[in-house]
Write a structure and sequence with these properties.
It is elongated and about 170 Å long. The protein is an alpha+beta fold and 434 residues long. It folds into 4 domains: 61 residues, no CATH class; 130 residues, Band 7 domain (Tetrahydropterin Synthase, Chain A), CATH 3.30.479; 48 residues; 109 residues. It has 10 helices and 14 strands. Helix 4 crosses helix 6 and helix 9 runs antiparallel to helix 10. Strands 8, 9, 10 and 11 form a 4-stranded antiparallel sheet that branches.
C-alpha cells in the first residue's frame, strides 16, 4: 500500500507558516480593511488632534471630559483649564479629539473707534480714538473663562467710550478742539486703565468655575487686558463752532503781534535816544578842540593827499575860502569862481563914471586871472610832493591871503566912488529941474 500517493515523483506541498507572517497571509483581506479604516480615522481626526499654535499666539485648552493630561501626570477636570502651565505655547500640540484649543493673539493690537460726546458748554463733539492694547499670557485662560474671544466689543470698546464721554464733559469745546487735546488724551488713558481693571475684577466668579482652586486666579482677570495708550486722532465739531474758534484764535495772535510791535517801537526809541546822546556828547567833545587854524591845517593835509592820488585833477592855489586851494576834477562842468547868475534885478546906471569903474575892475580882474593862471599847476597821476613843494604851497597861501585883502580894499574904494558919482549926478539933475 502506498502511504504518500504523490511520492511517485511529484513535489509534496509546503507546510503552512507560523508567526505573524503566516497570520497576515491567512488574514490578508481583513488586515487590509482594518488598516484602511484606521488611516481613514486618522485622516478625519487629524485637524482635531494636532493643533498648530502660530507665532505670537497662545492656546487655551477646554476639556469635554475629565481625564489625564497629556503634558502632566495628573487628572484634569472638565471645562476651561485655568492653570497657566496648561496654556499652549507656539508650535504643534496634540489634544484629544473631543477637546478644543482656543487661540488668543498676544501681540500688540489696535482698534480705531469714533465716540460722540457733549462738552461742558453743550457742544456736540465727535472724537476718533485709537485703542492700543495687549493680552497678558498668564491671564488668557481666565479671560476665556469669563469673557471669551469677543472681549474687544464686549468690554474694551464700551469702557473706552464711557471714559471718553466722561472726560470730554469736563472741558469746553474750544479746549477740546485746540488747547487741551494732549491733556484729554492722557486723562482718557489713565482713567480707562483704572476703570477697566475694576470692572474686570468684578466679573470674576469663583463659584462658576469647576477648577479645584479657582480663588487662586481671582486677580488674574483684572490684569488680563493691558491698555497701552489711547491717542486721539481727530476732534470734530460743528462747522459754525470751528469757524468761530478759528476767528478767535486769529484775533488773539493779532493782538500778540501788535503788542510785539509796540514793544519793538519802545526799544527802538530807547536806542535812538542813546544814539542821539552819544552823538551830542561826541560833538561837544570835538567842538571844544576845533579851531580855524586846525581846520586850515586839515585842509592842507587833504589837499596833499588828493594831489598825490593817481586821479587827474587841476589845483588852483589861493582862490578858495580862507586861502585854501580849489580842486577841479571836471573842467567841462566847472564855472569860473567869480561868475554869478543873472537874477533879473534892476540894471545899473549908464553913467560914464560907472562905465569907467567897470573897465578898471575888469582890468584888475584880468590881471588877477593872469596871475592865477600862472599859479596853476597840473598834477600828473601818481605825482608825489616833497618838502620844497610844500613850502611853495604855503607861500602861495600867504600870497593869496594878502591878495584877497587888497581886493577887498580896492572893491570898497570903487564902491565909494560909485556912490559919490551917483549922488553928484542926482544933485545936478535937481538943480536943472528947478
Amino acid at each position: 500500500m502506498i502511504r504518500y500517493p504523490w511520492s511517485g515523483g511529484d513535489t509534496p506541498p509546503r507546510p503552512p507558516r507560523r508567526g505573524w507572517r503566516g497570520y497576515l497571509e491567512r488574514h490578508l483581506p481583513g488586515v487590509s480593511v482594518a488598516a484602511m479604516v484606521v488611516l481613514l480615522i486618522c485622516f478625519v481626526l487629524y485637524p482635531y488632534t494636532l493643533i498648530t499654535v502660530p507665532s505670537g499666539q497662545a492656546g487655551v485648552l477646554w476639556k469635554r471630559f475629565s481625564g489625564p493630561g497629556i503634558y502632566c501626570w495628573c487628572i484634569l477636570p472638565s471645562g476651561t483649564v485655568l492653570d497657566p502651565d496648561e496654556i499652549r505655547h507656539e508650535g504643534l500640540h496634540f489634544i484629544w479629539p473631543w477637546d478644543k484649543l482656543f487661540l488668543y493673539n498676544l501681540r500688540l493690537q489696535s482698534s480705531t473707534q469714533k465716540f460722540n460726546a457733549i462738552s461742558s458748554d453743550g457742544v456736540s463733539v465727535t472724537a476718533e480714538i485709537t485703542i492700543r492694547y495687549q493680552l497678558n499670557f498668564d491671564s488668557v485662560a481666565v479671560l476665556h473663562e469669563f469673557i471669551g474671544p469677543g472681549y474687544l466689543n464686549t468690554v474694551l470698546i464700551p469702557e473706552i467710550g464711557s471714559v471718553t464721554r466722561a472726560v470730554i464733559a469736563k472741558y469746553k469745546a474750544e479746549e477740546v478742539y485746540s488747547t487741551k487735546r494732549q491733556q484729554i488724551q492722557d486723562e482718557i488713558q489713565q482713567t480707562a486703565v483704572t476703570s477697566l481693571a475694576n470692572h474686570l475684577d468684578s466679573l470674576f466668579q469663583a463659584q462658576a468655575s469647576v477648577q479645584a482652586t479657582p480663588t487662586n486666579y481671582e486677580n488674574f482677570l483684572q490684569h488680563s487686558i493691558m491698555i497701552l495708550d489711547t491717542p486721539v486722532l481727530s476732534i470734530e465739531l460743528p462747522t459754525d463752532i470751528v469757524s468761530a474758534i478759528n476767528q478767535k484764535i486769529e484775533q488773539y495772535y493779532k493782538i500778540k503781534e501788535y503788542q510785539y510791535r509796540a514793544e519793538r517801537e519802545v526799544e527802538e526809541s530807547k536806542r535812538k535816544q542813546i544814539e542821539a546822546n552819544g552823538i551830542a556828547a561826541f560833538q561837544k567833545t570835538v567842538t571844544q578842540g576845533i579851531s580855524d587854524s586846525y581846520l586850515r591845517w586839515q585842509g592842507i593835509q587833504a589837499t596833499l593827499a588828493l594831489a598825490q592820488s593817481p586821479n587827474t585833477k587841476i589845483i588852483i592855489i589861493g582862490s578858495g575860502k580862507g586861502g585854501l586851494p580849489i580842486i577841479l576834477g571836471n573842467l567841462d562842468s566847472t564855472q569860473p569862481p567869480n561868475q554869478t547868475p543873472n537874477t533879473g534885478g534892476n540894471t545899473p546906471s549908464t553913467d560914464k563914471n560907472d562905465n569907467n569903474n567897470k573897465n578898471d575892475n575888469n582890468k584888475k580882474n584880468g590881471n588877477d586871472n593872469k596871475k592865477d593862471n600862472n599859479d596853476k599847476t597840473n598834477t600828473k597821476p601818481g605825482a608825489s610832493l616833497d618838502l620844497s613843494d610844500l613850502k611853495s604851497i604855503l607861500s602861495h597861501f600867504s600870497d593869496a591871503l594878502g591878495t584877497n585883502s587888497n581886493k577887498d580894499t580896492t572893491s570898497n574904494k570903487n564902491t565909494t566912488s560909485g556912490k559919490n558919482s551917483t549922488n553928484d549926478k542926482n544933485s545936478t539933475a535937481d538943480k536943472n529941474s528947478k
